[in-house]
Amino acid sequence: MNARWKSLPSAVVPSVVEAESLSGGAVNDVWRLTLADGTPYVLKGALDAPADLFRREAEGLEVLRERAGVRTPQVFEVSAQHLLMEALRPRPDTDEFWEAAGRAFAELHAVRGEGFGWDSDGWLGLLRQENGPTADGHEFFAERRIRRYLREPKVRGALEPSDLAGLERICERLPYLVPKAPSVLNHGDLWRGNVVASAAGEPVFIDPAVCWMWAESDLSMIYCCDPPPDRFFRAYEELSPPADGWRERMPLLHLREHLSVLAHFGGNGDTVAQVRHVMRTFT
Length: 283
What we know:
The protein is α+β, with helices and mostly antiparallel strands. It contains ten helices and eleven strands. Helices cover 42% and strands 17% of the residues. The strands form four sheets. It has a five-stranded antiparallel β-sheet, with helices on one face. A two-stranded antiparallel sheet has the order 6-7. Helix 3 packs antiparallel against helix 5 and helix 3 runs parallel beside helix 9.
């Protein structure tokens, strides 16, 4: 563990005797820490993080646990530079585990909202997730999940003017492309890597970017980004059946993630090609 982390405002870090680097997100360092008595923790940190990034994440974990009853890690410390949580286990990736995760995800989406958005902005990576509330889901997705990223310099550098025009057409056509649906509690960043396991083997959700939005917008992340076994989706559908044709709409709703990747990292890889494929399909 790099010595620079010793400067964190933490009661635990100075007592660490062993630190193992873990695979985390694209913008933070993640460590498994062990104290002299064998107590394990997980430290997620970024020394140059936005001031409220980890506080918002901790609040999101509490919301998922308290409002939806799903399992999230216990938080022990929060500062502007770190989040200290209970240590969890790698998910087993069995059909039984993913079936339980699908049921838990459906329970999350059973929590209804009165509108779309949230009472404060959050974070997706190191870019602010705009959550200004609206009464209309199509307006919210267009303004806060597509047009929000079209202002980002790296997005404008990666896409051609014709691409930007195509995304504007998608925003205008959203009411015809996505059926009207209620707002539900969204995890906001649920891909396979953000599902781990408790000591008892139950699914645990980490790294949320919560808001009130369509269930399908939340589903699109785990459906399009390294999807789990189909048992996950079948278990989800048994408790929370989506509207007909939902699988065909997943790439459209996954545009938010593609644009976030471009906003963070520019036009490397095949993200631009994926954005263009979505535009050709839905315009």
